[in-house]
Amino acid sequence: MSDNRAEVGPDQNQVFPDFPGENGFAIFRAMKTLRWDDGHKWDDKNSRWGDPSYVLEPGDPGYVPPDAQENKVMSEDNKISVVISPADKAAILQKISELAALMPWRVNIPAADKTKYTHIGTTRAGMDEVFLNQMTAHPELVPGYVDMDEVRKDVAFRKDWAEIRSVFAPVLEGGDDAALLASSDNFNVYSAFKHSTDAAAHRSSAGADTVKASLDPFYPTPKRAPKPTAPAK
Any residues with CB less than 8 A from the CB of 134 and at least 6 apart, and which? Predict the structure, then answer.
């Protein structure tokens, strides 16, 4: 057949008996060898990755023309696609600044010091109501240094803040969860690139080892537990 090739050099097209011919005989076609660093995308519908790898060209069975391939379509594994415009980002930051200005009483306690303060947790729900009622009904039992007006101010503040936080916290949590999905998307894509690079390095593709070396620190090899030492006889 006219497109059969008996021999090919290392830098030429390679012969692949992938396409059935007439009467059950395979047609050997010269396919264009696909190299890791020649600009082809790993998810190109005409790319056939393997050992060896090749790419379909016009006239090859199964070839998909460029205009029939989707452009920039992520897989169904892509969990979120969000863009915060510069205007929206500026508006959000401005609103946060305005909120901060409305809360000049904010206090930032170092994380290591937070455990030093005793406080009323969820296990003591209802404590405020019971104690305020009893302290109001029995002022003779209230220690002399206690200012009941301050006690009531603290209680009112905590209730107001709990109400404000119940509205604001889900907004922050929603943003954090969206960022979590975006981070997951990034990691999955990076892992696919890492897998592609590892395969290229395994095939000794030019430059792949250098790329692989820059990626390896982010994928440390788990340390294996040492094998137990056989007891002495």
Answer: 141
